[in-house]
Batch of 4 targets.
Target 1
Amino acid sequence: MSSKDWIEKDFYAVLGVDKAASADDIKKAYRKVARESHPDHNPGDPKAEERFKAASEAYNVLSDSGRRREYDEMRSLFGSGAFRRNARGGGQPGGMPFDVSDMFGGGGGGDRRFGGAGFQDLFSSIFSGGQAGGQAAPRGPARGRDVETEVALDFGDAVRGVTLPLTLRAPGVCDTCHGNGAKPGTQPQTCPVCHGAGVTTRNQGSFSFSEPCRNCQGVGTVVEEKCPECHGSGGVTKTRTMNVRFPAGVADGQRIRLAGRGEPGERGGPAGDLFVHVKVRPDELFGRTGDDVTLTVPVTFAEAVLGTDLRVPTLDGAVTLRVPPGTPSGRVLRARGKGVVRRDGQAGDLLVTLDVVVPARLSDEARTALESFAEQTPPAAREHLDARVRRVS
C-alpha cells in the first residue's frame, strides 16, 4: 500500500466505525460488511466485490495495533483535510494560501532546506523505514490476508463433531502462472530501475530519501509478457473446496482457525489463516448450557404427585429417570455423562426439567374425582399471605 493510499483512504469510514472504536467493534463491523458484500452472496456484482476488498484492506490495517497507530499518525499529520487543495494543487492549512509543493519541492525546484526533495520522497523516508544516508530495505515476502467465513451446523453435529466440505470463493494463486504473473514460458525480469531492490534512493544534499520503486511498484521484478489468466497480478478469484473438521462440542459463535488456509502470500510470503465462524441451528428438543444438554419433559399432575419412571431421549439413545412422589413443576433431574463430551474425555450432563401440565378440560368423571381429591387434601400453606391481605384490607 502506497503512502498516498494511507492518506486518502478513510478505513474507519469503510467499516462504518468511529476513530475511537475498540478492537472488538472493528472486528464486528468488518464481519458485518464482509457478510453483506461477500462475492458468494452477491454473484456478478462488481460493486459488492470492491466493497468486500476495501473492507478486507481496512481490517488488515485497523486490526493490527501497530499499523493502526501508524495510520492514525499519518492521517493526523498529512490527511483528513490537513491540506485542502487549491487551484495550484497545493493545500491551505488553517485557511491561509499554501502549496505543499512549495515546502517540499513537489512542483519543481524545491526548498533548499530539504535538498529539493519531493513531498513523496520525504513521506516515504519517514514511514517506510528509510534512513538518512542509507539504503532502505527492499520489500520482502508479505503474509497473505486472513479469510473469514461462516458455517451453520446441526445441533447434533456440533455436539458430536463432524467433518464437512467447505467451499470458498476467495483470492488464490493463479494456476496458469503459479503466482508469478508472467505468461507461461516466460519469467519476471529484474527491474532495470531499482535492480531488484524494490526501492529507489536519491541523495539530496545532506539527505538520502528512499521510496518504493515506481517502475515495479516495490516488487523488484517486472513482467514483460503478462499471464492471460490473471493479467500479471499473480492471483485470481477462485472457488476451492476443503474438508474442515469441527471438533466435538463446538459451540454457537465459536471461531475455528485453520492456519495457512487463507489468501496466499505475496513474493513468496506465507498464506494467511482461515477463520470459520460457527452457527449452530436450534434443535427441536434439546438445548445447551455449557457442556450440559437441556431437555424439558411434560408430566401430568398425577405423575408429579404419585411419582413415576420416565423414559427420555438423549443425544445417543435413551435413559430412564425416576420422578419422586410429590415432585413440583420445574424440578430438574440429572442424567450424568449424557451431555457434551469435552476434550479431556469427560462429558457434561443431561438436565431434564419437569413441566407439570394442567389440563384445560376435564371429563365429568375426572372432575368428580378431582373434587373428591381436593376435599381430602390439606389446604396450601398460605397463612402468611392471608395475614398480609387482612392488614391491607
Target 2
Amino acid sequence: MAEQAIQTDVLISGGGVAGLTAAAAFGAAGFTTICVDPTRPVTTETDPGADLRTTAFLHPSRKVLESSGLWERLAPFAAPLQIMRIIDAGGAESEARLTRDFDASDISDEPFGWNLPNWLLRREMVARLAELPLVDFRPGVATTGLVTRETGAEVTLSDGTRVTARLVVAADGRNSFIREASGIPVKTTRYGQKALAFAVTHPVPHNNVSTEIHRSGGPFTLVPLPDRDGSPSSAIVWMERGAEAERLAALPTDEFEAAMNARSTGVLGQLTLATRRSVWPMMTQIAASFTAQRVALIAEAAHVIPPIGAQGLNMSLADLTCLLDLCEKDPAQIGEPAMLASYNRRRWPEVKAREIGIDLLNRASMVEARPLRDLRAAALGALYSLKPVRKTLMRAGLGVR
C-alpha cells in the first residue's frame, strides 16, 4: 500500500556530486531535504561502475562546501591547483612550442582550486548526509511523477512514495526527468568528440601544476592528484574526435601508453596508466529557462559544457550558491514565483556567456589545419603577454568579479 504523502521543504532529484552537495547544503542550512537517485552511488575506485573523472573545485566553490560541512571531509584528499599551464603543441611534431603559466599567486594568496576524484567525492558526501538530521537520502529511488501547483509540488517516487515539496531541485543530469516533466526545452550542440578519463603515475612531480596541451581533436589535460603508492599522480582528460577516442580506449595497455606519452609531449616524464579508461561524449547544452513552477534546475539538468578550464561543476555550485542564498534570505518564499524569477535572472545570462566562451575555446582546441593551429598559438601568446588581460582572464575563469 502506498504511503501517505511526506512533506519536505526541498526535494532534490539526482544524487550525483551536484545533487549530494545540494542536499548537504540545504540540510545544513536548516531546510528539510529529501534527495533521491535511481542509481546507488559508487564509492570505491575499483568498482566497474566508478566515475574515474575528477573534479577541480575552484576557489569560489569552497564557500558552499565549507558551510555544508563537506570541506573538512574533502580537504585531506584534495590536491591543490596552484598553476594553470597551457601548452600549444600544434607544430609539425607533437612537442611544446609555446608554454604559458597562469599562476594563482598573481590574483590571490590561495590556489586556483583543489582536485578530487569523483568516486571519492561521492563517498565523503554520502557519509556527510548521514550526519545531517534534516536530510533523508534515498539511493536506488527515482522520481517518476511531477505535478506542480501554486501551493507546492507533488513528486511521485519509484517506490510508490508521494512527496509534497515547496521546491523541487532538478540535479538529475543532462537527460533530466524533472526538466522534461516541467516542459522546459533544451538546445544541444554535439561536437563529434569524446573524452577519455583515467589516472596515471609519472616520475616528475606535478608541483600542483594543471597542464592543458593543445594540438588537435581537443585538449589533453593533466590535473594534479595526491601521490599514488608513493609516485606522483595526475588525472587525465583526453578529448578527441569520437572514433579516435573509441580506438584509443580499446588499445592494449602498452600501445595506449605509447600513444598517451606521445600526446603528453613528455611534460611529466613517462606516464604509466594507473586505472581503467572511461569514455564520455562531449556536448554543449543549455535549458531555455532554469525554472518552472516550483522547480529550479541546477548542474547538468540546466547546462552541460565540455571539460575545459574546470568550469562544469563550478558553474553547478554557483547555481546552488545562488539558489541557497535566495532561500536563506527569505525562507517563507522558498519555491515562490518571485524567488525563482530572481534565480533565473541571475544565473541564465551568466551561464549562457560562459557556454559561448567554452564553445569557442573547444572549437579552437579542435582545429587540425596547420595555419589555424599557428593562429591559436599566436592568440595565446598575445593574450598572455598583457598582464591586465592575463589577470582578467584568470578572474573570469574563477567566476570572481
Target 3
Amino acid sequence: MGLNKNSIFAWASFIIFLVATAIVLLGVLKYKDHAIGFSVVGIGFFAISWVFNALKGRI
C-alpha cells in the first residue's frame, strides 16, 4: 500500500482523534475525580488532530 503525504496526515489525524476521544471518555467515565485534567489533555489532542487535518494538502 503506497502512502503519500496526504494519506499519512489523514491517518495520523484519525488516530489522534481516537486517542483524544478515549482520553476524554476515560476521564468522564472511569476517573471522575480527575475528569478536568483528562478533559484538558483530550482537548489538546483534539487540537493537534485538527492541525494535522488542516495540514493535509499543504505540505
Target 4
Amino acid sequence: MKNKYIPTSICLYMNYFVHGMGAIILAQNMDYLANQLNTDSAGIAYVISGLGIGRLIVLFVMGALSDKFGRKPFVFLGGLFYIGFLLGILISPNLEVAFIFAVLGGIANSTLDAGTYPALMESFPKATGTASILTKAAIAGGQFVLPIVMTMIIASKAYYGWSFLFCVAILALNALAVLKMPFPNHKQPAAEEIADESIEKDTKPLPKLKQKANFWIEGICFIIIGYTSTATFYLVSIWLPKFSESVAMMSPSASAQTISYYAIGTLTSVILTSILVKSWIRPVYVVFVYPCLSAIMLFVLFLFPSPMLCMAGGFILGFTAAGGVLQLALTTMSEFYPEGKGKVLGIFFTSSSLATFSIPVITGIISKTSIANIILLDAFIAVLGSVLALVIIARYHKIFEIPNRKLS
C-alpha cells in the first residue's frame, strides 16, 4: 500500500524550500535593507549573524522537546517563527530590532530541524538517508528560485519586500496544511507501517575499528571541519552577489543570478555525490577533495574577477562547498565514534552554528575595506579544511581495517 506519510513529507520539504530562500534573503536584499536600516553592508552582515546565534541557543533544547512532545508541534512552530522573522525584518526601523528578528529566524531553523529530520526518518524508516538528503535538494531549490524573484523585482522596480511576502505566503499555507497531516508516532518504530517501501541496500562493506579514535587528533579536526565546511559555503551564499557587483562589475540583477548557479551546483552535487559515496568513494575522501576544489575556485575568483568566472564560480562552489561536505564529514565522524552518535552530532553542529554566527561578523568588518578580501579569506578557510581532512585520512587508514569496496 502507498505510504500515507508522503503528503506529510511534501509539506516538510516545502518548509525547507522556503528555508533555502530565507537563508539568503537578507544578503539578496543587502542594499535595500541597508537603506531601510540606515546602515551599510557590514551592518547587514551583523544582522545575518543573528541567524547563527538563534540557531545555536536552542540547538539542543528543541531536539529534546521534540522527543518529548512529538514532531508536528515543532514543524508548525518553526513555520510560524519563520513568518515572524520575515515580517519582522520588513518592519524593523533600525539595526537592533532587525537583529532580534534575525535571532528569531535562527530559532525557526533549529525548531524546524528538531521536528523535520526525526519525522522524515520515522516516516521512511527504510530510506532514512534519502529522506534526509532531499532536504538539501529542497534548500537548493529555494536558493535557485529567490534570485529569479529578485531579478523580476529589480526589473519592474517593485517593492523589495515582495520577496519576503512571497515566502510568508508559502509558509502560511504550508503551516495550515501541516496541522491536517498525519505524523508517525514518535515513541514507537514505524517500520511495520511501510511494508512495501523499497529498501536501501548498502553495497559498501563497512570499515572496522582496529583501535580507539583519539579525540585530541581526529576529534578536534572534525570539530574544526564542522566550522570550516559551513563557513566556506555560507560565506559564498552571503557575499558572492556583492563581490560580483562591486568587484566583477556585474549589474545588480545579474549578480543576484550567481546564487541561482550556486543552487544548481548544490543540487547537482547532492545527486551525484550521493551516488558516488553509495557505491564508489568513501565519504572521507570527498571531505578532502571538495574543499580543495573550492579553494582553487576561490583563489581564481580573487585573482581574475569577471562576470563569466562569477557565474562559473557560483556553480562550482555550490557543487564543492554546499553539496554535502558538512553531512559527509558528520557521517565520517560517526564512523570514528560509533558509540556516541548523538553527542557527536551535537558537538559537530554546535561548531557549524558558530560559523553561521561568526562569519557574517568577521566578513562584515572586512567589507568596510575590501569585498575582494572576503573571497580570499574563504579560500584560506577552504585550505584549512583540506589540510585537516588530510590528517583525518591518515588517521582513517591507521585505525580502521578497510575492506575492499564492492561496486554495483
